[in-house]
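S.,

As promised, the tryptophanyl-5'AMP run. Input:
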Amino acid sequence: MRIFSGIQPTGEIHIGNYLGAIKQWIEFQEGNDCIYCIVDLHALTSDYDPETMRDSIMNKAIVYLAAGIDPEKSTIFVQSEVKEHTELCWYLNTLTPIGELERMTQYKEKSKRKKKRSNAGLLNYPILMAADILLYDTEVVPVGEDQKQHIELARDIAKRFNKRFGETFKVPKAQLPKKGARIMSLKNPKNKMSKSGKKGNAVSLFDDPKTIEEKIKSAVTDTDNKISYDPKDKPGISNLLVIYSEFKDQTIEESEKELKGESYKVFKEKLTEVLIESLDPFRKKRRELEKRREVYVEEILSQGAKKAKTLASSNIARVKRKMGLV
Ligand code: TYM
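Predicted complex:
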């Protein structure tokens, strides 16, 4: 199967990104044709610093590799290095009603937050996402829950194009993890864990043991000191239980059984221990890769872009024929 997914280069990757997306990406690498993109064009829709952008892109490539994406098995590349993404985005723009874009939850949230600083890129963001996906005849898109609506839109756009111009695009499917699809903020478990959220809301994939300990210690729980999964009435503890179970590779029921009768304090100590142990290899691998940044990582991105470009340009030629441009 052809798999495609991506992450924006800005902000620090946290365990929500890992459990929602990257963990699935790694599993898909066995026996599938995987393409993982660093979506720098999407990041331009938010405030960013041009001085540090290229550095953030390289850092994300290192994150992919440190977390276990194998360049021998998967294609890793930077979105802006394959111009066909923006070209297809334009074609798809002409097929997408504005109302559908205005209904997107992320657009509504982001434009409300930005008010006057909102921009057209923010509105068209999901069309660029559709272009990313459709350009590679993608069948499955592993993402967290917050991207599901965008993949639905990509499906609609693909169907609309096929209906108007004849069978062209595969209609992709979103693949969400069973448990970690929406990891919540440690500070306010009603909100999702986010790169741009309040300090301490997220555990970064590369936090050192002391930072992990502090963040888990100050994670919001509740007062009844009973460890059970009940996202509605006990959102804080339920979120910690999901994180614990995912990193221990066990079901939530198994975690509940294991922790029965324990205090929140003991649970938090155990969670801290599991996180430190699980994230330690990522930190070590990243340190190694930092030293090989210039040659090794650059080379992986350059090879990845070459491969992606070959696929993208033949698909664009097909799209242009169908649309009557050539
Ligand atoms: P981004 O960079 O915001 O997030 C990257 C991935 O992490 C998932 N995620 C989460 N999963 C669980 N819990 C959370 N708290 C959490 N926060 C984030 C996201 O669902 C995502 O899978 N628009 C996309 C990037 C993109 C893309 C694409 C994805 C651009 N083109 C094409 C797939 C296919 C984004 O901003 O992700």
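The pocket of tryptophanyl-5'AMP is lined by residues 4-8, 16-17, 19-21, 39, 42, 129, 132-133, 141, 143-144, 146-147, 180-183, 192-193 (CB under 6 Å). The chain has two domains: 2-180+292-322, 209-287.

- D.
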